[in-house]
Design brief:
Layout lengths: L2 E4 L4 E5 L2 E5 L20 E9 L4 E6 L2 E2 L1 E6 L2 E6 L6 E4 L8 E9 L18 E2 L3 E7 L3 E2 L9 E5 L4 E6 L1 E2 L5 E8 L5 E8 L4 E5 L15 E9 L2 E10 L4 E4 L3 E4 L2 E2 L2 E6 L12 H13 L4 E4 L6 H10 L2 E5 L11 H15 L5 E8 L10 H15 L5 E6 L15 E4 L11 H12 L5 E5 L20 H17 L5 E4 L5 E8 L2 E5 L13 H10 L5 E3 L6 E3 L1 E9 L3 E6 L2 E6 L3 E8 L2 E9 L2 E10 L37 H5 L2 H11 L7 H4 L3 H5 L6 H14 L6
Parallel strand pairs: 25-26, 25-32, 26-27, 27-28, 28-29, 29-30, 30-31, 36-42
Antiparallel strand pairs: 1-12, 2-3, 2-4, 4-10, 5-9, 5-12, 6-11, 7-8, 7-10, 13-16, 14-15, 15-19, 17-18, 17-20, 20-21, 22-23, 23-24, 33-34, 35-37, 37-40, 38-39, 38-41, 41-42
Helix pairs in contact: 1-2, 3-4, 6-7
Length: 717
Amino acid sequence: MRKTENINGDWTLKIKNESMQVDLPHTWNAVDGQNEKDYFRGQAIYSKIIPQYEGNVFLEINAANTKSAVYINGCFAAKHNNGYGMYRVDITNFLTMSQNALQIYVDNTADPLLYPQVADFTFYGGIYRDVNMISSVSDTRFAMLDKSRTGIYITPKNDGSVYVKSVLEGSTRGVKKHFAVLDAKGKTVAEQTSDGDAQAVKLTVSDPVLWQGRKNPYLYTLVSQVIKNDTVIDEVKEKFGFREYYFDSEKGFFLNGEHLKLKGVSRHQDRENIGNALTLKEHREDIELICEAGANSVRLAHYQQSPDFYDLCDEKGLLVWAEIPVISRFSAKKQAQARLMLEELIKQNYNHPSIYCWGIENEISMTVTAPGLVNGISELNDIAHRLDGTRPTTCAQISFAKNDSRLNRITDIMGYNHYFGWYMQTADEIEHWLDRFHEECPDIKLCLSEYGAEGITSLHSENPVQGDYSEEYQAVFHEKYLSAINKREWLWGSYVWNMFDFGSAARNEGGVKGRNNKGLVTIDRKIKKDSFWLYKAYWSDEKFVHITGERFVNRVAGVKEIKVYSSCESVTLSVNGKEQTVKGDKIFIFKAEILPGENILRAAADGAEHTVVINGVDREDESCKLGEGQGSFVRNWFEAGDEINGEKLSLNDTLGEIVNNAEVQSLMKNYIGKSVKIPSAVGKIPLKQVSGALAKTKKGKELTDFANRYLQTIRKD
């Protein structure tokens, strides 16, 4: 019978000609990958002495980024070119001594043959998930080397049917397979025995309890055994759940026949000063925060994540969008690796009831349409259907992918990533875009796969505007998007970008280096931003009240608007002992006088309460604003290239055409509080004529290039 031993402890790491002792999981970019653009990307060697083991022996590496190679006693054993998937190596014949030298070479250098190469997250290097030694493995066993975890593929149906495909390695002569389904209490509710060479069996569970998402995530266990001469020689266990679902382009998503709007968040796997080397403890904390917000779904972006996290999603009832990092720029040279990543994702996670779709690309047309793009993505779509005929495929398109893009007709369901109100135009545009898309493509089953705005917890404003990075603007942005999402039943789901702030080494925005600050929660998981409480108000049944701006301590004294988020029907706000009660729906607005000095604000409803302190001051606190040189505009990550889109504004248009544009007027009103008019004579001047002299300097050229890119996000009237 197989034995599994975790060997995470006591490794020697050699990196940049230095040696040190480390335990796994480990990344060498835990610090520089979150604050330096030029974080270390290169090769390192993890070494460990391992003993001789009994029987057949397999080394299991759950993730090493980006590519890795295994050597035993100086002999090459295997290599792997997927930094996010598990792989195993049969090292039986390499263990020739009582003490054996194990070396794992890991390299996160950019490679033109591998995904991801360009993306808005840090490509941490290292062995950042568990490493196990599996020994005493029988010659005949459930597959160890078919890229799956157990060689068992479970397909349950809501009528109680359980179809089990099993893959054996070794001789099947004189071998039988036995399968038993256990309920949550460990009671056997179905069993079946088959010959060793039978690949598929059917079991039937009477009156199955359905896996109903957050409502009731009921799990069964399948125990699979290989039996020879009446002796069990191999055994594996897999949890699964009975559930079926479908999508409708007009009515949305249905789980086990019940309509369910997917209220989702996206999740990157890293954490401050830990990078991506998370343990079960951190995964549990993330799951608890996601559930506290009231989400019922999570998009695990943009790569295969820890098996621990998928298990937790099964247990908590979170519906999972799982995907591979075919991202940003397509290259036919990377297609072989893309096929490998997709096969490993599906085979290793096939049995998770939480996973409802396989994502095969994200923003793949970010730069230009590359040769072979449509054929390449179509091939991945076909592979996903071949490996799993039960789940739909999906993709996430970038904003400037046109509604009639061929990419929108490949996968079964799909999403769009939109940042109206942050990178482009205003937040109100999301309503217009959604309606236009549904009118033009009524048969497409669409979700909003990304949307968000940065919210830095040290930046605040009483009059937040787009691009100021304030915690307040982030909340206002999400208020508008939530309104748009909730109005449209046909939109089957949405995914906030992001649940947590995450490392993105190339970024330097809002005074914060190496980080994307769009999270509802900070990267250290210590601060729940105002936007977190907004979602909790809409999504959670828990009774609570939250006064927004609790970190906005110093405010100019006077009559102010105080906003409270709550899941209750009415809220009472006390300011310096003076009470007022307001009825509302999730968002409650009060007017209150902030006096000079300390002010105590207390909100209460249905037994819940929240108290904050505001200091009334005589002038604005400059520390709450962007500092000198930190910029007031957002870098446009959706830059489409140098080609000018004539349907949108550019430097080629006149001042009048630009200034009088309705969306430009809206933007100016947001920033300066009023609309702007210019003389008709001035309005006839092309903007490029005005910017020509400025562009003669390096800084001026950067400014005019930015202006042109920004204008290209605004459609002409």
